[in-house]
Write a structure and sequence with these properties.
This protein is mainly α and about 325 residues long. The protein has twelve helices and two strands; from the N terminus they run βααβαααααααααα. α2 runs antiparallel to α11, α3 packs antiparallel against α5 and α8 runs antiparallel to α9.
Length: about 325
């Protein structure tokens, strides 16, 4: 990527970063990226359509799955215009306001996905450890309240540090580490006092992502303890099989986000390609894999999709 001199870049404009050393192959790289974004869109829309049209799927587990699919569906449009715009040669720059807006949605949606995964863990815990009260605990009203709480937690708490980005002075070379904007990336370019943002972001990660992952782990410890008390091995395996899809979704979400955090915190001397690769995995891998996981591992959804395609043929 050609880097413009600092004098030609205003304080409100940033340069996106593509794949170093592959500048001449961006048109070819745009093909798999376009396919991935199309698969994210079609896969999550298909899951939402199946849940909406199949009456047998109108139960708490699938309501939370619909929330997950909707979150993944929003993640794609929040980054597609900068990633594909860069690869297609339409624009290598992004304005400060657009960058802050993208940062808000990327981090807010990540926090929202973590909250939905926690809610899904609670759903599995209730279904396995307290099956007789499952429908009375997870009523439609309670599910709506959980969804509103997840939405509020995800976007209200990140507003303060994101708004502060607007008033920072960016004196370092305005070159981002990715082809989209992240909070820690903008902090790296700022010469203003970033202590509030740094500590607030760390506290937010601890109170949301870390706390969610610990609670998910605790829920599965309790689930495993409950399953081991079941006399029949067949019933135990059947109960655990209902959790396989959720466990895969948790791993698909947390492994990339932990990897990206480690790269930004401790990978100061790593190749820029590592930053770009980890960033794109963090953005695209969970929304791409979740519909595949639930379509393959969830029997009700798999059968409904098979029936739907059979009718179409």
């Amino acid at each position: 990527m050609s880097v413009l001199p600092d004098s030609k870049i205003s304080n409100s404009t940033f340069l996106l970063t593509g794949f170093p050393g592959l500048e001449g192959k961006y048109p070819w790289l745009s093909i798999p990226f376009s396919c991935v974004y199309a698969m994210v869109l079609s896969g999550n829309c298909l899951v939402l359509h199946v849940i909406r049209t199949e009456p047998s799927l109108h139960e708490p587990m699938f309501y939370f799955l619909a929330m997950l699919a909707l979150t993944d569906l929003c993640m794609g449009p929040s980054t597609v215009h900068t990633v594909l715009g860069f690869l297609w040669g339409l624009s290598q720059e992004i304005g400060l306001d657009a960058c802050i807006a993208q940062t808000f949605f990327v981090h807010g949606l990540s926090c929202m996905e973590s909250g939905v995964l926690l809610a899904m863990a609670f759903d599995r815990f209730t279904a396995i450890c307290n099956p007789l009260r499952y429908t009375s605990i997870l009523t439609n009203t309670r599910i709506i309240n959980i969804g509103v709480a997840i939405l509020g937690r995800s976007f209200l708490f990140i507003t303060a540090p994101i708004v502060r980005l607007k008033f920072f002075h960016y004196c370092h070379p305005h070159i981002l580490s990715h082809s989209f904007c992240l909070h820690e990336d903008l902090l790296r370019l700022s010469c203003s006092d970033i202590h509030f943002n740094s500590f607030y972001a760390l506290a937010l990660v601890i109170c949301t992502l870390l706390a969610d992952s610990v609670l998910i782990l605790i829920s599965y410890i309790l689930i495993l303890h409950s399953v081991l008390t079941i006399a029949s091995q067949e019933e135990s395996l059947k109960s655990l099989q209902t959790c396989v899809s959720h466990i895969c979704a948790v791993l698909v979400f947390y492994i990339p986000i932990i990897g990206l955090t480690m790269v930004h915190r401790f990978g100061k001397h790593l190749s820029p390609v590592v930053y770009v690769l980890m960033g794109n995995i963090y953005i695209l891998f969970p929304p791409l894999m979740n519909p595949i996981i639930y379509s393959v591992k969830t029997q009700q959804i798999r059968r409904r999709i098979q029936r739907w395609f059979t009718k179409q043929n």
